[in-house]
Amino acid sequence: MSVTLMDILPAYDSDSKEIVKMIKREFAYSKITEKKFLEKLESKSKRVFKAVEDKKIIGFVELRKLDFQTARISGFTIAPKFRGKGFGKKMLEFAIDFLRKKKIKRVTLLVRQDNEKAKKLYTKMGFGFMGLWKNKIGGHVAEEWELNLHSNGEETPNYVQ
Ligand SMILES: CC(C)(COP(=O)(O)OP(=O)(O)OC[C@H]1O[C@@H](n2cnc3c(N)ncnc32)[C@H](O)[C@@H]1OP(=O)(O)O)[C@@H](O)C(=O)NCCC(=O)NCCS
Q1: Which of 64, 87, 117, 141 for a ligand 1 pocket mutation test, highest count of atoms within 8 Å of Cβ?
Q2: Rounded average pLDDT over 99-121
Q3: Which pLDDT score, from 0 to 100, does residue 36 have?
Q4: Which of 5, 14, 109, 147 has its CA 20 to 30 A from that of 67?
C-alpha cells in the first residue's frame, strides 16, 4: 500500500523527548537518554529523520556513517498504531535515497533474527542477509543485512543467483 501524507524531516533538539520515548518503548535494552540523543543530533557522522503525520512524530530512522562509503541504519521504527500502512517502506526508501545522494555505496543494518516483519521489508528493499552478528542484541540473536548501492542506481542484494 502506498502512502502520501507522511512527511520526513530532520529531527531537531525539540523532538528528542518524543523520539527517546519511542526508542525506549521499541528497544528496551537501549541505554539511550535525552542527553545522549542530543549528542547524536550534534554528531557529524549521524543523521536522524522523523516521520510526521498530522503534526505528530510517528517514527524515526537513524543513520550512521561507518566509513567513507558505508553507512548503517542504526535505528528504525514506526509507532505501533501506524504500522502496516506503508510508512516504514516510505521511510526506508527515503533513507536509502538520502544515502545514495551522499555517495554511500554500502548500507548495512542489524536486525533480530526473529524479526520476520522487518526482514520481509528489508528483503523487499533489496537488502541481503550477510551473516550472524557477533554479539547478541538485548539477549537476542541478531543478523547483519546489507544493500549495495551501485553507481547506476541499480540495487541488488550481495548474493543472487
Ligand atoms: C519494521 C517496521 C518499521 C515496519 O514498518 P511498517 O510501517 O509497519 O511497514 P510497512 O507498512 O511499510 O510495510 C512494509 C513491508 O513490511 C512487511 N510487513 C509489514 N507489516 C508486516 C506484518 N504484519 N507481517 C509481515 N510482514 C509485514 C511487508 O513486507 C510490507 O510490505 P507489503 O505491505 O507490501 O507486504 C515496524 O514494524 C516497526 O517499527 N517495528 C518495530 C521496530 C523494528 O522492528 N524496527 C526494525 C529494527 S531492525
Answers
A1: 117
A2: 97
A3: 96
A4: 14
